[in-house]
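Subject: Interface between my chains keeps coming out wrong

I've been trying for a while to get a sensible model of this assembly. When I model each chain on its own everything looks fine, but I need the whole thing in one frame so I can look at the contacts. Pasting all components below, labels as-is. Any help appreciated, I'm running out of ideas.
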Amino acid sequence: MDIQDYMTTLGRQARAASRIVSQASTAAKNDALNRIAALLRERAPQLLEANAADVEAARANGLDAAMIDRLTLTAKGVEAMAQGLEQVAALPDPVGEMTDFKRRPTGITVGKMRVPLGVIGIIYEARPNVTADAAALCLKSGNAAILRGGSEAARCNQAVAACVREGLVAAGLPETAVQVVDTTDRAAVGALITMPEFVDVIVPRGGKGLIERISREAKVPVIKHLDGNCHVYIDEFADDDKAVRIADNAKTHRYGTCNTMETLLVHVAAAPRVLGRLADIYLGKGVELRGCDRARALVPAMKAATEEDWGTEYLAPILAVRIVDTLDDAIDHINRWSSQHTDAIVSENHTRAMRFIREVDSASVMINASTRFADGFEYGLGAEIGISTDKIHARGPVGLDGLTSQKWVVLGDGHVRS
Amino acid sequence: MDIQDYMTTLGRQARAASRIVSQASTAAKNDALNRIAALLRERAPQLLEANAADVEAARANGLDAAMIDRLTLTAKGVEAMAQGLEQVAALPDPVGEMTDFKRRPTGITVGKMRVPLGVIGIIYEARPNVTADAAALCLKSGNAAILRGGSEAARCNQAVAACVREGLVAAGLPETAVQVVDTTDRAAVGALITMPEFVDVIVPRGGKGLIERISREAKVPVIKHLDGNCHVYIDEFADDDKAVRIADNAKTHRYGTCNTMETLLVHVAAAPRVLGRLADIYLGKGVELRGCDRARALVPAMKAATEEDWGTEYLAPILAVRIVDTLDDAIDHINRWSSQHTDAIVSENHTRAMRFIREVDSASVMINASTRFADGFEYGLGAEIGISTDKIHARGPVGLDGLTSQKWVVLGDGHVRS
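Reply #2:
Try treating it as a single job with all components included. I did that and got this:
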């Protein structure tokens, strides 16, 4: 079958299914999620077998160790997938929420109803758990989904897809509510992102290259997550212990996550108090430090930072360090270099802290907390489909609400406009 | 000066100004708006003179009567512009609103802050009032704006722009917070919609062709308003008098607006009760009727409708009429043909009315009210920058809130993630 025809068929089926799942009861959606979870547990041996075949093929194709690591599914991973589905089932259903109804001077009553977006296309790289996670979030929010996983995980993705289909059917929902693209042909992605008649929004999950390409070529809106070049600013009025604890955690809790700090900014008055302590911690954990001249004067073990460092998301045990003279300089640095993902201030001074969160134009701004908290679970969303660095629709962690929007409802009693 | 360089300069200036207006006090923004209103009134003679020159040139270029009509500014129009600015000044400031702060199990407190989008590019056709309206909405919502009006209105737009600049400066705000593109070169539009580093969102206002072209070519998100193919469905359980009043108003109150009804759907049991009465009204007002066979059997003066009629936004005294057997058929027709702008049901039956508003996937859904109410002023937004037919970010009338988004705020006390 021609790839364009195949994708058109998926699109048409998704559009039809979306009308049904948009109206499905919370009970039916939760029933499907719980059944899928049970099926995943029941078929863990087959999932692991399919994954092993994926991993073997990936090794034969010479994929690097990090990629193999992300691809590999364990028994614990299957259990985590199942639990994830059950957690989404336990979340409140956002669909149908009616809010803000107010009587207008004309006599009509105007308010809003929360509704699904329709059909969501999700494109991701070789992580088997995304298939189950994304299916759960789309279904719970009343959307149909078309999922396109990395070709390296194809066998495992299809095994998960079979569980999803069976769970949907057992709950009385259309099996086409979640479709996993069953071809490794790259043209499938091109088709998926250029079918506005069938797909309402695209969520790409993966490396920057993938996301940039999709954003460039898509003919539908994209909820995208580009870099996480995050900052911690230690203010003159910081509590030193909090500063050290936060700057340590923000960098070293995990190196490869998008909410990891990549540049540490320190007020010139705070630097002598905290930079030595922090350098001991970082160097002890094997973090390479790259600093401005003034930072290097305090910590000679630092290498020299270049301008390129300010703009780099290392995703590695490397940290850029810069000393700034004022809060304004810190804010200017962040608004110039940050990827608008997550930035934090450490300060006991209320006015400075409030200025920071007002003036730093990032999806998440924090006072006296580690950037590592920027996460759907930590924020109470229950789960996340991704972290948006866009400025419209949804900023930061995107949960069930981010997969919905609000339509206007007008209640009249024969009212006409005069 | 090269057009690309010129637009880059405007973009850079807008980005810098956006940082300042995003932090400007409500008082300063309102002061600017009121000063601009005063300047418009003071310079009404010059504005009318500039507009007269635009109109003369447009006539010489052979523009059609409707276009000339939209282009023409009257003394009353200037006063309406000034009042519009004052009305926006009187609206609550959306910027800085902090909501939904909740303590999480980790001890952090997580909530949201409403913030401007940044820089908004607005592209519109020859309507002089849009320059003042759009400037006001962008400024009040803390955004910088780059406005590109139709070349036919260039003289008048620049005269309005001068008032805006002077008002901004008098209020202590940067004059580059609102910039009106001062070239009629069409390449300016191409540049404006492809500068993601300087422009955060594009709002095109004008004909479908303009909006489709911009949506296709833009490299930044577009808040767009395409067709308004709106429906009224008269249910079996409709109150006949309300049905006639609403169907009359939805079609004949104004023919050229996007919230005007273009197709009337009537339940087969209601048709004998209301269709004759409505046909008398429509034909008496010179509305051409195009119906399905069953409708024509009841009203022989109707012409035959073709499938093309169901998909057409006439913007004219023409109405398509179709008789349907069930509520489901009505919903199916609407979800198949509607432009998802505004659709209404007339029914006294609660269950049917609720099914209609839940299942019709349009930006505005109404019970027993005329589609003509779909409007930012009628909904209480105070003003609107346009009516979105998109499904993400904002659906329906877009007011000040639609020109903002929410960032996440995390408040800690030295909290780190474990």
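Reply #3:
Confirming on my end. Chain A touches chain B through 70 residues (CB under 8 Å).
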